Amino acid sequence: MFDLTGKVAVVTGASQGIGEAIARGLAKQGAKVYVTGATSIEKCKKVTDSINAQGGCAIPVVCDLSKPDAAKEMHRLTGDADILVLNASVQFRKGWQNITEEEIDTQLTVNFKASFQAIQEYEPYMAQNKWGRIVTVGSVQQYRPHKDMAIYAASKCAQMSLVKNLAKQVAADGVTINNLSPGVIATPRNTDALADKEYAQKVLAGIPAGYAGVSEDMVGAALLLCSDEGRYITGTDLVVDGGMSL
Q: Does the pLDDT of residue 194 top 90, yes or no?
């Protein structure tokens, strides 16, 4: 099950957290994985070295998705792929009245525009081969937007709308496009927030499961959406959040 031998995967934002866990999961199932990050080749290489040491096949790539033509550059660096996991995102925790224009543009560019442009770059090869898997990583904030992350939450809703729209158009080509929405996950991005005991207690009280997830909790869902076993799933949002969105 979930055999990805011979497949090539590109995972954005894979130098840590959820992206790293998904990259490791894909490599373990036999895929050749491009581990991409925004700025640090050292962080990407640390992940790929670990994957390769365990018998996998991974290659580090640096590409800042906030820059113009970033999707084209990423495609140039990786070549075509069978699997595209769009995990990279940016968020700024600020009250909505204090968000700057630059912060708005950065979040919309990385979280939405770059996803769309990457799909434009990689999907034609998948369609040609009549097999492709595209997974965007969303957020429980599509359902429960955080008061201090209005633009981040909105960008994830826009991405989900894109998934539904494009999935209908490429399904006949053997390409699936789905969204994977994590809840509260104990990643480096959330370390400081969850270290505040009072704040963490409030957050956990809103999760029926009663605890924050870890990055590895996303891997099983990602493998389903990236494999032959998920061939009949497209245009959906697979929420992995311990019940937080209920």
A: no
